[in-house]
Amino acid sequence: MSWLQEVFQVNKPIIAMCHLQALPGDPGYKRDKGIGWVMEMARNELIALQQGGVDGVMFSNEFSLPYLTEVEPVTYTTMARIIGELRHDIKIPFGVNVLWDPKASIDLAVATDAQFVREIFTGVYGSDFGLWNTNCGEVVRHRNRIAGESVKLMFNIVPEAAAYLGQRDVADIARSTVFNTKPDALCVSGLTAGSETDSSTLKKVKDAVPDTPVFANTGVNLANVAEQLAIADGTVTATTFKRDGVFENETDQARVRAFMEIVRCMRKENG
Questions:
Q1: Which of 260, 184, 267, 209 is nearest to 4 (CA)?
Q2: Which residues contact residue 119 at a Cβ distance below 8 angstroms, ignoring those fewer than 6 apart?
Q3: CA 125 to chain centre
Q4: What is the pLDDT of residues 41-73, one digit of tens each?
Q5: Residues 210, 213, 219, 220: is their CA dihedral positive or negative?
Q6: Which of 32, 109, 180, 271 could cross-link to 114 by cystine, CB 3.0-4.6 Å?
Q7: With 90 as the cut, is the pLDDT of residue 7 above it?
Q8: pLDDT tens-digit series, residues 155-179
Q9: What is the total count of domains within the chain?
Q10: CATH at residue 132
């Protein structure tokens, strides 16, 4: 049994993103509404996603735009408070993602008992957020130092809003990443949140590393979920679950249910 089946108890799990509103220190933080409103919005999102039938949820500071590659302590401490207060409402496996700081993500996972994180752990990129460097060896050692060995690491090898500086084929990146860093899963993304993951790129990655779980990380929707899941081992999904399929909007439980009904039918057809 793979770790995906052990954690999610299904084949090809759908991990939904619970996008937290802008937090203290973020340019978009609504001071007049305060943390109580952020908490209320997060609880509403979580309940809608769970009642819609998703297999797992991942909390992220999605509205902390523009993102930092080394976040301020107020970000992950506020996230820890929110997740802590929501803990009794969380009924499905959950993970965390502190955009875009792998150490902070692991710190938050350990503090909240999250089972997985998604981050940029490898590579050097030119991005909308500047020159983006990583140090996977240091991050993995940090995980071990803080007793986080059980936290599964999902490596985004095609990060949003960024380009790999080395001229390497994505299949070669996948193979060398798996050989050198032993990720628990790889994620393949489109340009931004909500942008469709290119199926040919997804297939290249999966063909290159058939024994490693590969997730379609952005842009999976009602129209393409069958095609994407025919290749991928699961999806990380958010925008299509929002009202009218708009990134900034709140989660629409009916859209979640419609999406998950297709996924359940696919699982039945595939045994």
A1: 184
A2: 97, 98, 100, 101, 102, 105, 153, 154, 155, 156
A3: 19
A4: 999 999 999 999 999 999 999 999 999 999 999
A5: positive
A6: 109
A7: yes
A8: 999 888 899 998 899 999 999 999 9
A9: 1
A10: 3.20.20.390
